[in-house]
Design brief:
Helix content is 58%, strand content 10%. By secondary structure, the protein is an alpha/beta fold. Strands 2-3-1-4-5 form a 5-stranded parallel beta sheet, sandwiched between helices. Helix 6 (136-147) packs across helix 7. The chain starts with a strand and ends with a helix. It binds dephospho coenzyme A and adenosine-5'-triphosphate (ATP). It holds the Pfam family CoaE.
Length: 230
């Protein structure tokens, strides 16, 4: 199995690229969706977050008001680190199970869309690593437009993350999403070819079929040895 890492900065275009993967039949595990799931009302993550941040972050229906929690953590690095610490175990274990489900289904190539791939040190489990890069001014403008927030808030969110230029230096593949969607789609086609090329022997051995054949060979080997010993 090939586990491709997809990361970038906030509003750099990760979801845009992951939607392209999905539309070409490559399954994607979306860490943002997982992060939303682990703080649903009544879950372990919800309890931890409410205990740490208080009832003021709750909506009337008891769900966490993510916009409100976002305002708190994107302007205070200590609180952000606290939230990251509380949720990291839940997020990583859920991502692991999502990967296992895809492995059991026999998926050969999957994409992990994880904004904090490097920060959470999950980059070691993925190869190749794709970084969706955008120039700084376009990033601010797109974030302001998408979230309907003022420039200062947008810059707070961007500064809450490791610099996108640094992430770019760690990438195996960079998609420059500063231009039009059409330009991104052109780059994507090349990336798709690269990512879906035949699996290496190691990747093959880690796929469901690979494990099956290793297991079957071991059983046959044992039976042959036992027969020869009789
Ligand atoms: C802060 C929260 C409540 C804001 O929720 P909201 O729905 O408004 O935003 P959403 O979850 O869609 O995140 C939007 C983007 O913000 C950035 N972001 C989210 N959390 C963080 C963080 N802890 N540090 C830096 N950037 C972050 C990512 O680029 C993400 O794609 C939420 O993002 C959260 O619970 N974050 C902590 C969990 C986490 O680490 N998520 C990232 C997945 S690895
Ligand atoms: N090439 C592009 N041209 C114009 N707009 C774009 C382009 N790529 C993405 N956008 C827009 O920019 C915004 C951010 O893109 P997207 O949601 O894909 O980023 P993201 O990295 O997934 O964000 P987040 O980190 O918040 O999850 C969206 O409103 C999207 O429609």
């Amino acid at each position: 199995m090939r586990i491709v890492g997809l990361t970038g900065g906030i509003a750099s275009g990760k979801s845009t690229v992951s939607n392209l993967f999905k539309s070409h039949g490559v399954p994607v595990v979306d860490a943002d969706l997982v992060a939303h799931d682990v703080i649903r009302k009544g879950t372990g993550g919800w309890k931890k977050v409410v205990a740490a941040f208080g009832n003021d972050i709750l909506l009337e229906n008891g769900e966490i008001d993510r916009a409100c929690l976002g305002q708190i953590v994107f302007s205070d690095s200590t609180k952000r680190q606290l939230l990251n610490r509380l949720l990291a175990p839940y997020i990583s274990s859920d991502i692991f199970w999502e990967v296992m489900k895809l492995w059991l289904k026999g998926s050969k190539v999957i994409v992990l869309d994880i904004p904090l791939l490097f920060e959470a040190k999950m980059d070691k489990w993925t190869a190749p690593i794709i970084v969706v890069w955008v120039d700084p001014e376009t990033q601010v403008q797109r974030l302001m437009a998408r979230d309907g927030i003022p420039e200062e808030q947008a810059r707070n969110k961007i500064n809450a993350q490791t610099a996108l230029d640094w992430k770019k230096t760690k990438a195996d593949i960079v998609i420059n999403n500063s231009g039009t969607i059409e330009e991104t789609k052109l780059q994507f086609q090349e990336v798709l070819n690269q990512v879906t090329r035949p699996l290496t022997w190691k990747e093959l051995a880690l796929s469901r079929e690979g494990v099956f054949w290793v297991f079957l060979s071991a059983i046959v080997g044992i039976l042959v040895v036992q027969k020869n010993l009789k």
